[in-house]
Design brief:
The protein has one domain: Aldolase class I (TIM Barrel), CATH 3.20.20.70. About 30% of the residues lie in helices and about 15% in strands. It is built from eleven helices and 14 strands.
């Protein structure tokens, strides 16, 4: 885990990756603050940091207090984050997350539409600061001509990330958000070129990857997937077919990496599926311990391993793993609250 590795244009000093985690601390205008810069700086000994999910547009916002990457102020905020991480010798990529139908207008500052591939409401609730948990809204189906505008929003967000000094971007194509809504048979009932056949249902993701890669270089673009996941009311009838084709097509682009949330489901073991169809660097995620992560890297199951919750309470996680120092537990009640408590106030094991 402590050997360097190259993922496309990204030269990691170790193979320990900080996984993206929503922390709900954006300031006014969905701008990342100096608190974000300190939070990521503290964890910059990771070989690579993948930021929390960042909306590429106002319509992409789902959760309260999540940051964006479409305005000048937001880009400047991420510039401070990138500078802080680079000052510690680290690397950081922006995870671009359009929530699609997993949203409420209550959380959208500009009242923008809740959009999705099809007008099918997600069964579930989403937290709002104003009203607490509320039902997710009925989305408006994107018109065919509008899809290219959403792709363009991702492309511009990738350019903004690079303008901010960030090292690349990761497309969040998991967790039931917009890209996964296009991929999945229960959320995509379209009859145009973006729906129906598996070739059509992967088109939005492929066009988005293509646009971002052409904008900033394919070797600076990654993608996060979890084939078979049912989170946020997703239910694809044949995830092996859907993701088998997606991974084959995406492999040909020369992406920096694939970020796999490894799980086994009744319809698919997504690690086995990925190994059969993906050709490229692989970051493995989900419920890993230092021991299991080391084993996966040692037997070439993965090129790197990402940790989420371990990084919350252990900003010096790399040091702790190397020195076999016990890991601290995180304050679950403050994961999504505002302010520094439960965010930047965790103490390293080695204060020096």
């Amino acid at each position: 885990m402590f050997d360097p590795v190259t993922l496309g244009a990204l030269a990691l000093r170790n193979r320990i990756v900080m996984s993206p985690m929503t922390r709900s601390r954006a300031g006014a205008g969905d701008v990342p603050t100096q608190l974000h810069a300190e939070y990521y700086r503290q964890r910059a000994t990771a070989g690579l940091i993948v930021t929390e999910g960042i909306q590429p547009s106002p319509a992409g916002k789902g959760y309260c207090r999540t940051p964006g990457l479409y305005s000048a102020a937001q880009t400047e905020g991420w510039r401070r984050v990138a500078a802080a991480v680079h000052g510690e010798g680290g690397l950081v990529v922006a995870q671009l997350m359009h929530c699609g139908r997993v949203a409420s207008r209550v959380n959208k500052n500009d009242g923008s539409d809740v959009v999705a591939p099809s007008a099918i409401r997600a069964d579930g609730k989403i937290f709002t600061d104003v009203s607490g948990p509320v039902a997710m809204e009925m989305p408006r189906a994107l018109h065919t001509h509008e899809v290219r505008f959403v792709v363009e929003e991702y492309r511009q967000a990738a350019l903004n990330a690079r303008a901010a000094g960030m090292d690349g971007v990761e497309l969040h194509a998991s967790s039931g958000y917009l890209p996964m809504q296009f991929l999945s048979s229960n959320t995509n009932m379209r009859t145009d070129r973006y729906g129906g056949s598996v070739e059509n249902r992967i088109r939005f993701v492929m066009e988005t990857l293509q646009a971002m890669g052409e904008a900033i270089g394919f070797d600076r673009v990654g993608m996060r997937v979890c084939p078979g996941l049912d989170y946020n009311d997703i239910d694809d009838a044949n995830p092996a077919e859907t993701y088998g084709l997606l991974l084959q097509e995406a492999s040909a682009l020369g992406l920096a990496y694939l970020h796999l949330v490894r799980r086994s489901f009744p319809l698919v073991d997504n690690f086995t599926l990925t190994k059969a169809h993906w050709r490229g660097r692989l970051i493995l995620n989900n419920e890993l311990t230092p021991k299991s992560a080391a084993a996966a890297i040692a037997d070439s199951s993965a090129d790197a391993a990402s940790f989420g919750r371990h990084f919350i309470a252990n900003p010096d996680l790399v040091y702790r793993i190397r020195q076999e120092v016990a890991l601290s537990d995180y304050d679950r009640a403050r994961v999504y609250t505002q302010g520094p408590q439960g965010y930047t106030d965790y103490k390293p094991a080695n204060p020096a």
